C-alpha cells in the first residue's frame, strides 16, 4: 500500500493546561475537509503539518519522510491562510512571485510561470494591480496562484471560502477541484459549511476539544445525525 501523503502518529501539542492530540493518515491525492467548532484545533493541526507549530511529542510524516527538524520552507507543503497574506504594497504579480523567490529575483521562465498561474486562476491582466483594488474572492485566487507556482504536492487551505458569497464559493470549489486534478496534489481545507464538504471533500476530519473525533468518507459524515457537535455542524439541531 502506498504511504499516506500526510501521516500524524501520536502527535500531541501542549498549550499551558490545554492538550491537543492528532492521529491521522490522508491518502495521496485526496481532498479532505477539516471541520469542527471554534477552538477545536483545526488551525493547530495545519500548523503542525506545515511546521509552524512543533509538536510536544509524536511524529509528522509527509510523503513518507519524517519532518522532525524541518522548517516550513523545507516541507512539501503550501499553506494559504485565511487572510491570504498578500503584501499591500506589492503588485499582484510580485505577490505571486514571492512563492518562487522571497527576494523576487525571477528568471524569464519563472516570470512566465507567475503569469500562467494568474491566468489559470482567472486573473490574467491583473498582474500590475495592487491587492487593495481586488475583491476578497480575487485576493483568495492570488493566494492560490502563489501556492500553484510553489508546486508543492500538499496544499493546506485555511477557510478558503470564508470571505466569499455563495456563487463565489461554488466557483472557488470548482477551481480547487480542477487544480487538484491537474496537479495531483493532496488538499486539506478548513471549513465551517457542509456545502463546501459536499462540493469538494472525499474525506472529513471532524475535530472537537483538541482531538480528531471522526475521520471518515464525506458521504458517511454528511448523513450523520450524531454526535451532537456534528449534528449541529450539519444543521440538524439548534443546540
Ligand atoms: N499559541 C497558542 N498558545 C496558547 N493556546 C493556543 C495557541 N494556539 C492555539 N491555542 C489554543 O488551542 C486551541 C485550538 O486552537 P485553534 O486555533 O487550533 O482552533 P481552531 O479550531 O482553528 O479554531 P477557529 O475555528 O476559531 O479558528 C484553542 O483553545 C486555542 O486557544
Automatic annotation (TrEMBL):
Keyword annotations: ATP-binding, Cell inner membrane, Cell membrane, Membrane, Nucleotide-binding, Translocase, Transport
InterPro entries: AAA+_ATPase, ABC_SmlMolc_Importer, ABC_transporter-like_ATP-bd, ABC_transporter-like_CS, P-loop_NTPase, Thiamine_ABC_ThiQ
Entry coiled-coil feature ranges: none
Entry keyword Cell membrane: yes
Molecular function terms from GO: ATP binding
Keyword rRNA processing: no
Domain ABC transporter intervals: 6-234
Family, as annotated: Belongs to the ABC transporter superfamily.
Protein name as annotated: Thiamine ABC transporter ATP-binding protein
Originating gene: thiQ
Amino acid at each position: 500500500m502506498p504511504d499516506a501523503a500526510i501521516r500524524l502518529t501520536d502527535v500531541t501539542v501542549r498549550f499551558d493546561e490545554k492538550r491537543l492530540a492528532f492521529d491521522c493518515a490522508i491518502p495521496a491525492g485526496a481532498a479532505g475537509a477539516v471541520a469542527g467548532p471554534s477552538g477545536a484545533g483545526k488551525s493547530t493541526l495545519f500548523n503542525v503539518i506545515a511546521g509552524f507549530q512543533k509538536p510536544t511529542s509524536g511524529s509528522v510524516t509527509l510523503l513518507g519522510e519524517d519532518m522532525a527538524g524541518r522548517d516550513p520552507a523545507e516541507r512539501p507543503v503550501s499553506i494559504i491562510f485565511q487572510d491570504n497574506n498578500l503584501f499591500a504594497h506589492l503588485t499582484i504579480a510580485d505577490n505571486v512571485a514571492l512563492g518562487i523567490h522571497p527576494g523576487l529575483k525571477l528568471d524569464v521562465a519563472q516570470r512566465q510561470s507567475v503569469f500562467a498561474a494568474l491566468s489559470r486562476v482567472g486573473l490574467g491582466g491583473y498582474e500590475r494591480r495592487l491587492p487593495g483594488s481586488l475583491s476578497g474572492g480575487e485576493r483568495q485566487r492570488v493566494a492560490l496562484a502563489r501556492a500553484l507556482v510553489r508546486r508543492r504536492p500538499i496544499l493546506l487551505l485555511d477557510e478558503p471560502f470564508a470571505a466569499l458569497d455563495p456563487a463565489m464559493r461554488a466557483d472557488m470549489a470548482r477551481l480547487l477541484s480542477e487544480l487538484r486534478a491537474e496537479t495531483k496534489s493532496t488538499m486539506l481545507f478548513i471549513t465551517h459549511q457542509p456545502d463546501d464538504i459536499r462540493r469538494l471533500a472525499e474525506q472529513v476530519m471532524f475535530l472537537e476539544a483538541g482531538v480528531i473525533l471522526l475521520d471518515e468518507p464525506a458521504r458517511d459524515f454528511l448523513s450523520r445525525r450524531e454526535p451532537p457537535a456534528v449534528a449541529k455542524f450539519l444543521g440538524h439541531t439548534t443546540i
